[in-house]
Amino acid sequence: MAGILFIISAPSGSGKSTLVNALRSQVGGIDFSISWTTRQPRGSEQTGREYHFTTRDEFERMRDAGEFLEYAEVFGNYYGTARRSLDEAKSGGRDLLLDIDVQGAVQVRQRVPEAVTIFVMPPNPKVLRTRLRNRSRAEGYVDEAVLQRRLNEAKKEIENYSQYRYILVNDVLERAVAQLEAVVVVERIRQEGRPIDQRTKREFEIAEGCREANSRERLQPVLESFGILPGPHSQQYSLLETTDDHGTNE
Ligand code: ADP
Ligand code: 5GP
């Protein structure tokens, strides 16, 4: 595709929607794919804005008609990305951001290997629980069983972190937003084959620090807090040395 396909995944409650909204308000030229889902709207969510909310029957009809680029069942509900989102971004030469789970990311990577993958982690399970609870409170309904299920799922999702090119730890929000923006800016510069200059050097440094291959020390306490043993990381990676390389950690 002419534009860049960004995939962002995170355990529910990590702050991915918060980060993506901040990105969209500050960086132009990036489309956001509105997924289809069979889950019920939460809080003030509206169909056509956060999601296209639909029935199981309609989702299965679309799936059987091959209308999805990828789909997955998450927490007992279907979620899917319409092929149309990608086609429209492609034909307009715009970047596209998919907010999808790890199962969906695997499917998209098979079809679009050059996709730029970003994983967002919460700093530890305690913070994740607090964020999930606060969000439920703000939406007017806290279901402890649902919270526990999402926490259990979080660990399983985080175990897949090393399949992603960039890893953000959403601890201090402003820092995580700056990291996400840096990743987008740097990937655009790279796609266009532009050199790093004084103006963009800082963004390169931030993005490089988020490369999975460069994140061993930063991620260790986070992984330990979730009871996950760090897997083998890819080789240390420097964009400054190899600006035309897309890395090997996918
Ligand atoms: P997700 O989209 O990953 O499910 P949300 O963006 O809905 O998560 O965030 C979950 C909750 O955590 C929200 O109440 C949000 O305001 C809050 N939150 C997100 N990022 C941070 C952060 N860095 N610090 C504190 N609270 C945060
Ligand atoms: P939530 O219900 O909290 O909005 O989302 C639950 C999970 O579903 C999140 O991990 C989110 O990334 C994922 N998700 C949202 N849309 C899609 C989609 O179109 N495809 C897939 N595979 N996952 C999705």
What does this structure look like?
This protein is α/β, with parallel strands linked by helices. It has a domain at 5-32 and 97-225: Rossmann fold (3-Layer(aba) Sandwich). It contains 9 helices and 9 strands. It has helices at 16-26, 56-64, 83-92, 102-111, 125-138, 144-158, 173-192, 198-210, 216-225; strands at 5-9, 30-32, 36-37, 52-53, 68-74, 77-82, 95-99, 116-121, 166-169. It has a 5-stranded parallel sheet, sandwiched between helices. A 4-stranded mixed sheet has the order 4-3-6-5. α1 packs across α7 (173-192), α5 packs across α6 and α7 packs across α8. It is globular and about 50 Å long. It binds adenosine-5'-diphosphate and guanosine-5'-monophosphate.
Q: Any chance you could write out the topology, listing elements then pairs?
A:
Blueprint: E1 5-9, H1 16-26, E2 30-32, E3 36-37, E4 52-53, H2 56-64, E5 68-74, E6 77-82, H3 83-92, E7 95-99, H4 102-111, E8 116-121, H5 125-138, H6 144-158, E9 166-169, H7 173-192, H8 198-210, H9 216-225
Parallel strand pairs: 1-7, 1-8, 2-7, 3-4, 8-9
Antiparallel strand pairs: 3-6, 5-6
Bound molecules: adenosine-5'-diphosphate and guanosine-5'-monophosphate.
